[in-house]
Amino acid sequence: LLLVFASPSTSKTRLLDGLVVATGPVTRTGAVASPDSVGDSSPEARTRAMSTEVNVARFSYLDDPYAVLDCPGSVEFGGDMAAALPCVDLAIVVCEPDPARVGALQPILKRLSDAHIPHLLFVNKIETARGRVRDLLEALQEVSPTPLVLRQAPIWTDGKVTGFIDLAKERAYVYRSDQPSLRVDIPSDMADREAEARFQMLERLAVSTKPAQPEAA
Question: Which helix or strand (DSSP H or E) is residue 182 part of?
Fold first, then answer.
């Protein structure tokens, strides 16, 4: 069971639709304004063009069933998020690639850490990013009580994000509109940066999982 939420304007419902399309139940990504999206299907959500209640979607991936609870990001509906937390196994916090706006995530991340709920951050709208991903990660770490590591590094082509490198598996992919990403070779001009980012990821994981040493008497 997954929980997807974020601050407003992060296109998290668009992300939900993308997950459903990628796994097969729906053949194309919809839009609230159309209106033909999977999420935000109530009349009020259509009128406001925003989430006003928890949306539920189901799909299977690699024969494993998933249920996604897409919670409203607006603070006025924070009670819906709080009510959903006790029943989730993993929380996906959707955010924008703007270091100046990460402060809004602090209450959410603290609540998740206090409740010991596993969670990850999904940086949506990465194609609108300005500046280094490293700076964004540092800004996110300032508002996160738990250590963060970078799992995917974006691939830039002519100033645009065209794909990503999975640092754990050392695989590169390029985006394709309304199709699964295509696996490609890691760009030669990114090989050194990929190696450095992967080393930093593994080093941070090793430090954060190291058992605490007993204090000296």
Answer: strand 179-184
